[in-house]
């Protein structure tokens, strides 16, 4: 049996600069167009109302429809990005929205206008907006927080610039032609999408070796220092030997040295290239505990059988990490090292790992160095190998295309025994929506898996965001109308929304920095943002001067930015990085529903009361309640943690025979593991 040649695992390598800054520019401009046009609705509201002679509540639904649609289609757009390149998704989105804006002014009534402008335009906006988040995460790892901060700042800049452009164009061209001007801006996103070129692929082992080399040199220097300490001349040789042994032991027991050796050990184990004996870990070195991999676990055949499960199952798809996959290929490449599972893995196309939704941190906008997953791995290559994974359904599909009873002889390894043939069942895909490719269905299943709502923290977050997003857009859409009802100088009031955009951009940068300082948790900042914003909005109708309205626009724009920009960090902290994609998808859907409902409801309130004050009271109230609801999360998580600790202690006591049988009978609390995400 000879050594088998297997295709190396190629993964996208983030350049953390270079062409990545072109990507940041393209994402910045995409966010500028999408959010700038969305928040510029207030400049068109009166024109729409006069053109179609409809109520305030129905007219506002136009603006909320485009925002709600582009948020609601997030999971679908993620599925498209998982199957096709992001550039093609963005280019298609630019064409769809651009065409919608070109033909919308010809609509005979408001309902056709809402369908074309709101639904069709919103669909295209969703295809532009979400890839702008994904692609920045692809190009940046160590500098991701800064790159993401710059790209999302386009939203604030757009909120400042686009309303001003619309004001000038409406005054000189009319609202219909102004929408055509916006259509030209949207068509420019086709060019920005073209800039989203795929990342070059690099062998995962090469990345690991590059990162490990400085560590090996550092460890080699430490070991040389140990040897010099032992061999140094001393008048009393026995004392010298003893002191050298003590120094050797002290250095070896140094936590930093142990961690360095542990990282090197794991790096060498995951690499196909054997390392020299000089870099092997000494027998007394304490190593970090590692998760059982599919290749090292004695139950791997059982895992393989489960991998061919029903795609329509309520359980979320389990996954195979890049580390496990790479180790399987490594075993297959070694003489006599091929196992049933390793051969099965060889049938998987390594390009599956290049799909964006197969990265746990694809929606994470904070600093990767702050993640516990990165701190546990110690290196970027190790972190990427542990957080990059594919659904086991992909493995099952690949297995169904292999005849493993014959594969053994074809690969030069042993054939599969008869008692193992039952493990090679045909892959049965009886899930719904078979017309969609498997990568799209996997992405949809990952993003909108409702099982996560069984988690109390996730349910509280969804309720909080439903209320929070209902109130978020109300000031943006009605602030100008409120000033007009107060009979303020409209030549000054026209700058209120742009001023909001400026300080919203400043706030995103500031709160991103504040979160990195670890002074307050992201959740605490988020909760304070909602509560303070709610109180400000409640007080806004009482600020009856233009200076008061400017004060509100400045402070509200600055404070509420934390609610938007810290979303992914809050989710990663509370739900864990492994649940970030799922929780982000559910939250986007919740926010989309809220965006559809909130502003129209405020418009209906105005139609009933004839006062915009009531609309602001409603918006402020839901923001305040959203913050108070979210503030209960620390108490809920603490209670769940205490319950989990108590049950774990009881389980250990039962295993050790400490708890008496009579007490067990009286204990009605079921002993089960609680999933704290």
From TrEMBL:
Transmembrane segment boundaries: 21-41, 61-81, 88-104, 110-140, 152-173, 179-196, 457-478, 490-511, 523-544, 550-572, 584-609, 615-636
Disordered: annotated segments: 220-318, 646-677
Main localization (coarse): membrane
UniProt protein name: Major facilitator superfamily (MFS) profile domain-containing protein
Molecular function terms, GO-annotated: transmembrane transporter activity
The entry's keywords: Membrane, Transmembrane, Transmembrane helix
Membrane topology: Multi-pass membrane protein
Bias type Basic residues, positions: 281-293
The organism's place on the tree of life at top rank: Eukaryota
GO CC, alphabetical: membrane
Coiled coil start-end: none
PANTHER family, per the entry: GH22266P, MONOCARBOXYLATE TRANSPORTER
Compartments reported by the entry: Membrane
Ranges for domain Major facilitator superfamily (MFS) profile: 457-677
PROSITE patterns tied to this protein: MFS
Gene: mct-4
């Amino acid at each position: 049996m000879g050594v088998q040649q297997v295709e190396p695992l190629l993964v996208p390598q983030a350049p953390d600069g270079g062409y990545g800054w072109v990507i940041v520019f393209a994402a910045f401009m995409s966010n500028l167009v999408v959010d700038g046009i969305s928040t510029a609705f207030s400049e068109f509201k009166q024109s729409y109302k006069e053109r179609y002679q409809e109520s305030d509540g129905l007219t506002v639904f136009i603006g909320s429809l485009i925002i709600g649609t582009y948020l609601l289609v997030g999971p679908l757009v993620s599925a498209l990005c998982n199957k096709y390149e992001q550039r093609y998704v963005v280019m298609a989105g630019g064409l769809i929205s651009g065409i919608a804006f070109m033909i919308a002014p010809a609509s005979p009534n408001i309902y056709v206008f809402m369908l074309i402008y709101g639904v069709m335009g919103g669909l295209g906006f969703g295809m532009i907006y979400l890839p702008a988040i994904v692609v920045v995460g692809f190009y940046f790892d160590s500098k991701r927080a800064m790159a993401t901060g710059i790209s999302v700042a386009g939203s604030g800049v757009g909120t400042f610039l686009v309303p001003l452009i619309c004001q000038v164009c409406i005054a000189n061209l009319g609202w219909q032609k102004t929408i055509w001007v916006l259509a030209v801006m949207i068509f420019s996103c086709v060019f920005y999408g073209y800039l989203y070129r795929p990342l070059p692929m690099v062998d995962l082992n090469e990345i690991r070796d590059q990162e490990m080399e400085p560590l090996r040199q550092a460890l080699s220097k430490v070991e040389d220092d140990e040897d010099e300490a032992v061999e140094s001349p001393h008048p009393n040789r026995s004392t010298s030997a003893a002191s050298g042994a003590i120094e050797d032991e002290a250095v070896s027991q140094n936590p930093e040295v142990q961690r360095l050796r542990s990282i090197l050990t794991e790096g060498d184990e995951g690499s196909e290239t054997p390392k020299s004996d000089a870099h092997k870990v000494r027998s007394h070195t304490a190593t970090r505990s590692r998760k059982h991999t599919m290749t090292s676990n004695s139950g791997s055949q059982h895992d393989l059988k489960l991998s061919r499960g029903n795609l329509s199952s309520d359980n979320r798809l389990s996954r195979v990490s890049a580390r496990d996959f790479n180790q399987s290929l490594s075993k297959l490449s070694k003489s006599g090292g091929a196992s049933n599972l390793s051969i099965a893995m060889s049938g998987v196309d390594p390009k599956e790992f290049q799909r964006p939704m197969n990265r746990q941190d694809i929606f994470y906008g904070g600093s990767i160095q702050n993640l516990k997953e990165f701190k546990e791995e110690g290196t970027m290559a190790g972190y990427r190998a542990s957080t990059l994974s594919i659904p086991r359904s992909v493995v099952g599909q690949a297995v169904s295309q292999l005849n493993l009873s014959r594969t053994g002889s074809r690969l030069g390894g042993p054939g599969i025994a008869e008692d193992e043939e039952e493990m090679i069942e045909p892959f049965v895909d009886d899930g719904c929506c078979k017309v969609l490719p498997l990568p799209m269905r996997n992405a949809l299943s990952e993003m909108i898996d409702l099982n996560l709502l069984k988690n109390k923290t996730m349910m509280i977050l969804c309720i909080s965001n439903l209320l929070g997003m209902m109130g978020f857009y109300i000031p943006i859409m009605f602030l100008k109308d409120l000033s007009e009802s107060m009979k303020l100088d409209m030549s000054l009031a026209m700058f209120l929304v742009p001023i909001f955009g400026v300080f919203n951009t400043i706030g995103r940068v500031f709160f991103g920095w504040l979160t990195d300082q670890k002074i307050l948790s992201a959740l605490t900042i988020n909760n304070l943002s909602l509560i303070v914003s709610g109180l400000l909005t409640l007080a806004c109708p009482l600020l009856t001067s233009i200076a008061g309205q400017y004060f509100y626009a400045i402070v509200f724009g600055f404070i509420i930015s934390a609610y938007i920009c810290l979303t992914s960090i809050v989710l990663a902290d509370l739900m864990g990085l492994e649940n970030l994609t799922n929780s982000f998808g559910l939250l986007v859907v919740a926010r989309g529903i809220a965006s559809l409902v909130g502003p129209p409801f405020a418009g209906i309130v105005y139609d009933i009361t004839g006062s915009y004050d009531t609309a602001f009271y409603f918006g402020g109230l839901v923001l305040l309640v959203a913050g108070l609801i979210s503030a209960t999360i620390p108490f809920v998580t603490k209670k769940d943690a205490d319950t989990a600790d108590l049950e774990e202690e009881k389980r250990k006591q039962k295993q050790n025979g400490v708890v008496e049988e009579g007490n067990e009978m009286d204990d009605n609390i079921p002993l089960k593991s609680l999933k704290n995400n």
